[in-house]
Amino acid sequence: MPDASTANLAINAERLWSNIMTTAAFGGTLKGGVRRLTLSEEDRRVRDWLVARAQASGYEVGIDRIGNIYIQRPGRDPGRAAVAMGSHLDTQPTGGKFDGILGVLAGLEVLETLDEAGIATEAPLCLVDWTNEEGARFAPGELGSEVYVGHVALETALACRDAEGVTVGEALSAIGYAGTEVPGARRFAAMVELHIEQGPLLEAENLTIGVVTAAKGQQWYNGMVSGRESHAGTTPMTLRRDALMAFAELALAAERIASAHAPDGVGTIGMAEVSPGSRNTVPGEVRFSLEFRHPDPDHFGRMRAEMRAEAERIAAARDVTVTLDPIWSMEPLSFSPDVAAAIAQAAAARGLPYREMTSGAGHDACAVASAVPTAMIFVPCKDGISHNEAESATLKDCAAGANVLLHSVLALAGVSHHD
């Protein structure tokens, strides 16, 4: 339990909000959102801002070879593994001000609040910015945290390319964040990630805090339908091998499968590229993305099997080839009950209404949880909207989440009793 002297300790809500608005300028868009793709110039600028802030406070800053940034405040017992906080600084191409960065800035606010109050923790505290959580520029997402836990080999991650052919390794070097620390060498006793919910439940139920105890499984595919290009005017319908029409049927099959596993099952095709892209040529190829998510392992497995069967049926019926290449997956997971209990206790002690939740989105915490006792804190976002320039959260809710983060990590790291 935290020392009695910390019971009423609170973060500086105005400073946290100011930092959110300041960092939103790094990649700020005309519609009030943020475009800060990972390892871009905008990402470099926000990373530089964070590192400068950390160094000004005298914290140790480490950078590993996949570009994860570690900002550590020492504890009274240097032999103890640090308690980690953190999230990510990168955004979607049309992202908002809060997704990811709220967890990083709230972690910074925790460290600075403890400094100002003169409070030492037994275990060190470490704030982490994980590289490429979004997966918008380089797929897959959660790359920094997946490398940290060993799910993705460092060499594989560094070789990932964006749409222009630039590798992660090249991009890291270009912005000056190709660190030397070995990913995974720095161990943590626990991790807590604060994040906006990215869904509507907390707002609908008038709750302030989500104690996240589980996360949906995810399966990502790169897909391709190969047919045959032919003349749009002279090729009879019965002789066509139309890749786009086959893809359209496949897309509806994906929707049908996800709907059959409702309410928790979801399926999404976020990208599709039709070739050759001529109005009077029957399309010969469609490349696309596909993903499924479900929190139950049985349903999750059935969704994947059903999609395979539909792909085979459509390919045979339409005389095309359908390829579904699984590029990343995460099985449904449960977070640490002990860390979740610390979060729930912190919320209850502050008088904040909360509920247990399952995350429908993937987060760095989902990767880290395989190696470190981990759980998450959610706060509401307006209308449940995220991955959108209209993404919005209130100062009050952000501050409440940061205060729960503060008291969660104090419970986990221990508060020093001075002689």
Brief digest:
The protein is an alpha+beta fold and 419 residues long.
Beta-strand content bin? 15-25%
Distance between the termini: 18 Å
- Class by SSE composition: alpha+beta
The H/E string reads: HHEEEHEHHHEHEEEHEEEEHEEHEHEH
**Estimated radius of gyration:** 23 Å
Helix content, binned percent: 25-40%
Poorly predicted runs: none
The largest β sheet comes out as: 9 strands, mixed
- Compute the number of strand runs: 16
Task: Please tell me what the overall shape is.
Answer: elongated
Number of helices: 12
Mean pLDDT: 96
Molecular structure report:
With 419 residues, the chain is α+β, with helices and mostly antiparallel strands. It is 35% helix and 22% strand. It is built from 12 helices and 16 strands. The strands form 3 sheets. Strands 1, 2, 3, 4, 5, 6, 14, 15 and 16 form a 9-stranded mixed beta sheet that branches. Strands 7, 9, 10, 12 and 13 form a 5-stranded antiparallel beta sheet that branches. The model has no long low-confidence stretch (mean pLDDT 96).
